[in-house]
Prior knowledge:
Keywords: ATP-binding, Ligase, Nucleotide-binding. Pfam families: ATP-grasp_5 (PF13549), CoA_binding_2 (PF13380), Succ_CoA_lig (PF13607). It comes from Rhodococcus wratislaviensis (Tsukamurella wratislaviensis). InterPro entries: Acyl-CoA_Synth/Transferase (IPR051538), ATP_grasp_subdomain_1 (IPR013815), CoA-bd (IPR003781), NAD(P)-bd_dom_sf (IPR036291), Succ_CoA_lig_flav_dom (IPR032875), Succinyl-CoA_synth-like (IPR016102). The structure is a single chain. The chain is of the alpha/beta class. The protein folds into five domains: 20-90, ATP-grasp fold, A domain (Dna Ligase, domain 1), CATH 3.30.1490.20; 96-211, ATP-grasp fold, B domain (D-amino Acid Aminotransferase, Chain A, domain 1); 232-357, Rossmann fold (3-Layer(aba) Sandwich), CATH 3.40.50.720; 358-517, Rossmann fold (3-Layer(aba) Sandwich); 529-707, Succinyl-CoA synthetase domains (Rossmann fold), CATH 3.40.50.261. It is built from 25 helices and 28 strands. Helix 12 (388-400) crosses helix 17 (505-517), helix 13 (419-428) runs parallel beside helix 14 (442-454) and helix 17 (505-517) packs across helix 25. The protein is flat, with a radius of gyration of 31 Å. The two termini are 44 Å apart. The relative contact order is 0.07. The mean pLDDT is 91.
Amino acid sequence: MFTEAEGKSLLSAFGIDTPRGIEIAVGQMISDDIREPLVVKAISSTLVHKSDAGGVRVGVRRDEIDEVAARMGEQLAAAGHRLEGLLVEEMVPSGHEVIVGAVRAPGLGWTVMVGLGGVLVEVFEDVAFGLAPLANDQILDMLHELRGMKVLDGARGGEKADIPALVTLISRLAGPNGLLHSLPDDVIEIDLNPVIVSGTRAVAVDARFVVGPVEDTGSAPGDRGDGRATDFTPLFHPRRVAVLGASGQRPNLANRFIRNILSGGFDGTIVPIHPTADSIEGLPTARSLAEVDQPIDYAFVALPATRVSEALSRGAGRVRFAQVISSGFGEVEEGKDLEETLVQTVRDAGIRLIGPNCLGTHASAGRLSFVPEAPLTPGTTAVVSQSGGLSVDILRVGSLRGIDFHSVVSIGNGADVTAAELVESALRNDEVRVIGLYLESLAAAREVLDVLTRSEMRKPVVLLAGGRTSEGSRAATSHTGALAGNHRLWPAIARQAGMTLVDSLEDFATALHALSTLDLTVKPNGRDAVLFGNGGGASVLGADALERQGLATPPLADSVVEELDGLGLPPGNGLRNPIDVPAGTLAVKNGAIAKDVLAVVLAGSEPAVLISHLNVGIIQRNLGETHGDVTGTVIDSIAGARDEAASNTHQLLVLKTDGSAETEALITTYAHRARTRGIPVFPAFEDAALAARAVLEQGQRTYQASRDADGR
């Protein structure tokens, strides 16, 4: 470690406030310009946590220093340390104790932590993380994530901390030109604990700089060194596809791929590559890629790992994209050399590599997919996944939720084409409106963060992260390193990048469905919601679900309630919000009464979201024979009220089932009807509430980014 005096000298050089002090030998006098009361700290090359070993005394007078030093020497010796000197500083006036720290991690760079400091960091672990460099608004976002922010704001008559001074301190440490940017690679951990934040200043009263071995992260995947952006159009709209690894005798994965794209209606050219067979799946073969005299947009490669590099080398100058399905590369220790050779081979050949160790690419408009009976209706949602198996689930579950995909790309090891590069391409692609990511690597997420930070274009991004464990760094010396578990870093990256982080595949599909269905040019204000539908208990549960996602259901204004009451509705309605109406009310005008109700609500209020919920089974049993298609009429009424009001309110719909096959079939039909009118449909309130959060988060971020871009 640096000595504390060395660390504080560095801090001072970057304008970070530290106490006045001096480093002295035991028995040495200090000058009169160091004012009492004093803090005396032990200097020892083996001492990490000074307080635990009795190496800190506060409120010391000048004439007590020798006595304090003698006692410290005894206590340190008992703990196995030797007192080598003293750091004597002026005591900083009391204030709030905050910890600010940073730890360097391979692939991530500096991760920065802020939280309640002193012993509280160990007890409550009330901390927030971000990745350097940090802008001031990102630092404020971190502070507002703390449960203890109310304490810093002066809760219950306490002293209000100088938040601008704290932001300035963190910026000088972790901003674009801060101290972290200038430190040598062998500085790996920093703790400023505590930083005393009073009403007028923020002072780093303790500083720990840890030095360790420099980790070689190697060259970054996707970094070809030429600065050129790849045009991914041939990948998503291929006209000539080569397939390597299909069998002329026993069908395998490559054979199934050929069958999938033929049955999906691919109308380009398919060229199976085989050294001996004359035809495969009824298609004429070529002996190698060298025999194909026309450019190949996409090569699907399912050969043994040891044969892949040689086979692709024959496609130099001919193949644009090669997706290597084969495993046995960098995901296992014995395959790392094979992966390095493969990457060098494709770069020499001018081929962009997807994979290896993946499943394939799904491109709806290109009629290309790696799954049988693939959903190929062209859409605007592009997904990048580090998992091949989950890519299949994303397609299946997403299709059932009503998502029409632009593409789903399984990137596996990401040895060449990375998630970040595909995100950058999707931001430029007018065919894509919404981006979904499944990532298991924090380093890959950091690359995405960098792309989103520097891009002037912004689109909604939803992140599903694998490996969100609470495991920290067991070998970490600093509090920051010990607390930097993945469960904190994933939310930090998502917050800083402006991505919506979700917890499950179902939530992933829910958020993508809402974002791809709603008109995101609508810019709602606030986070209020109105609930409308049949079932009072259901409405209560809906309000609870919304509150868990950070939305409120405040009562409607008295004027709105009076106007609703004036509609002449049957008795038994709750009109305050939630608006609870029994099936008998929905029967008025055979369901068209819903348009009257929602028109009043939208004319007299402007909630961010309006969630209608219908118990389809109850409506069908009670009203179907006498009032016709009430549910369908309500859906049309919701869309009609929205269109006529032209309000800044997003409309969402929950269609609840009783579990019967008849009701399930009806819901499928009604869901399609709603989606064609631009209304996303969900099976439960929990899904609608999560969708509402995602839409409000992403809509605001997309809107703000577009304004910032216009300002530039």
